[in-house]
From TrEMBL:
Residues 7-143 form the HTH marR-type domain. It comes from the Bacteria. InterPro entries: HTH_MarR-typ (IPR000835), MarR/SlyA-like (IPR039422), WH-like_DNA-bd_sf (IPR036388), WH_DNA-bd_sf (IPR036390). This is DNA-binding transcriptional regulator, MarR family. The lineage of its organism: Bacteria, Bacillati, Actinomycetota, Actinomycetes, Pseudonocardiales. One of its GO terms (molecular function) is DNA binding. Gene3D superfamilies: Winged helix-like DNA-binding domain superfamily/Winged helix DNA-binding domain. Pfam families: MarR_2. It comes from Actinokineospora diospyrosa. Keywords: DNA-binding. SUPFAM superfamilies: Winged helix' DNA-binding domain (SSF46785).
Length: 149
């Protein structure tokens, strides 16, 4: 069954907004800090973790990536000294990812401008009622997706 006109319009608007917002955030972050959104997505949970240390599989889960994508991106970040990889003390097959001082400095420097861009491009145009509605909508959509799994 096809989407009706309203459903199609909303779905296409969602896709376009997601694409355009990602593009703006990617360009601004790269321009302002030299980081990609992928770098930033990985640096956030690392910077929020005690000792800046996260098991690789938990990091992949946190950002919703497949293991191979994570591994390739971590290699790029490691070559730029943003992270290091270590053997997991509990499981020799597992890997730990550690935020380096350079990585912490990079996210600390990037965060204020990135947050300002998120506010300006996504949050500021919305009212408190809009935010409450989106909070409810995103919660229901996330629950529906979880039920699909």
């Amino acid at each position: 069954m096809w989407l009706n006109d309203r459903e199609a319009r909303v779905w296409r608007a969602h896709l376009a907004l997601h694409r355009d917002l990602q593009a703006v955030l990617e360009r601004r972050l790269a321009r302002d800090s030299g980081l990609s959104l992928a770098d930033y997505a990985l640096l956030v949970p690392l910077s929020e973790s005690p000792d800046g240390l996260v098991r690789a599989r938990d990091l992949a889960t946190a950002v919703g990536w497949e293991r191979s994508r994570l591994s390739h991106h971590l290699s790029r970040m490691e070559s730029r000294a943003l992270i290091t990889r270590e053997t997991c003390p509990d499981d020799a097959r597992g890997a730990m990812v550690r935020l380096t001082p350079e990585g912490r400095a990079a996210i600390t420097a990037a965060a204020p401008d990135h947050v300002a861009t998120v506010r300006r491009t996504f949050l500021d145009p919305l009212t408190d009622a809009d935010l409450a509605a989106l909070d409810d909508i995103y919660s229901r959509l996330s629950a529906a997706l979880a039920a699909e799994e």
